[in-house]
Amino acid sequence: MLVSVRNPAMRSDPRNITGLALVVAMGGFLLGFDATVISGAVGPISRYFALNGESGSLKLGWAVSCLGWGAMAGNLLAGVLNDRFGRRAVLLLTALLFLCSAQLAAFSTSFGVFVSARICGGIAVGIALLTAPVYIAEISPARRRGALVSLNQLMIVFGISVSYFSNFFLLGVGPHNWRWMLGVQALPALAFLLLLIRVPESPRWLLTRGRAAHSLAVLSSLHGAQVGQQLLVEIQDSLRSEPGASRIGEVLGRRLRFVLLFSLGIAFFQQITGINAIFYYLPTIFAQVGGGQSSAYAQAALVGVVNVGMTFVAIRLIDRLGRRPLLMAGVSGMALALLTISWAFHAAESPGSTTQLADARLVLGAIIVYVACFAISLGPVMWVLLSEIFPNEQRAAAIAVVGFWNSLVSASVTFIFPWELARFGPDGTFLGYGLLAVAGLLFLAGFAPETKGRSLEQLESLLARPVAP
Questions:
Q1: May I ask the CATH architecture of the domain 14-463?
Q2: Extended strands (E) in 284-347
Q3: In the chain, what are the domain boundaries?
Q4: Is this structure's pTM higher than 0.85?
């Protein structure tokens, strides 16, 4: 059920908020699908575009990671576009970009066109990554905000899982199966575009534009007339208390220093521990332990199912246990799993080993544990925290800064992964990821705040340093 703001007297219905969150979270589905569908096309595009030798490995890394570099541009644009045009218009733009990217990649006949199409999709990824959780947070009641914002992460991992299954089932369509793998995304992109037409604008953004009546209509339709009026007053008071400097200037200023440094830190550790390298190259990793192509794709699909299932667990627990417990438990498991993967590959290559292949069951099990732990911690919790800890007026610009940094780390890790495998082997590569996960655990233990059950305005007063008179 979607909300219409033409009737401000509409009675409050929790399904309105859930329905809106699900529609907006379709951007997360497209983000996850677009990001990982390339995993099934790595081999075919290597052959089609003749990406051979050492230079071919770097070109392959560029073909896979260019979506991340495009996402950086999307991150930079997201804050400006959200502040200028509103969340709804920006989401419509992402739907169009996803649609165009899928078709252009599917029909490309040159490496340059293929990369351009993926960069176009990356721009959509970067914008959607930052806009969807902000919109959902701004329409959600405090008691449900963690779960509702986590719906976006759920849809991301659902998109990842669907991409693995889609790749698996499209393996047999012929030598140009990669075109089908990339082009099928046009269908959900079109559905997203059509559904967004009935989505209202964020009430908090409307207030920043002086459109109080429109904002009240949306708030009342979502929360009821009485609560809507209370929320309107709270948001207005919050906006009045904030200085009038530029958004980026405030984000980089002393007032938000702790919040910004923590956000940059958690965004760094979310990606430097290798999650996207693993997702983008899953069939390649499984090929390192033997088995055929079909088996590698089936194992990737299994990992996708685990990712979705554990994200449901995170949604169930995030507003009950809180953000910190999930982060601490999840990152601990990630570190242990990564070190186990490293040991499995190292043991296979050690002198006296009877095989040059790592234990396939151990590697698969450790990757499943790693993905499961990520799915209950850094995956959803980071984006929930980012949507909560920045003040209303700076939220879009701040998340754009942090998202740009997150995408930069992600693209860099994805780009050098093929080179790392060739230079350090899988044991050295995963050892590095494991040690970085341990460092991330120490960082989170020292600095991660707990935001459970507090309104966005309450969190602003707790986390933002007061401005000197």
A1: Up-down Bundle (1.20)
A2: none
A3: 14-463
A4: no
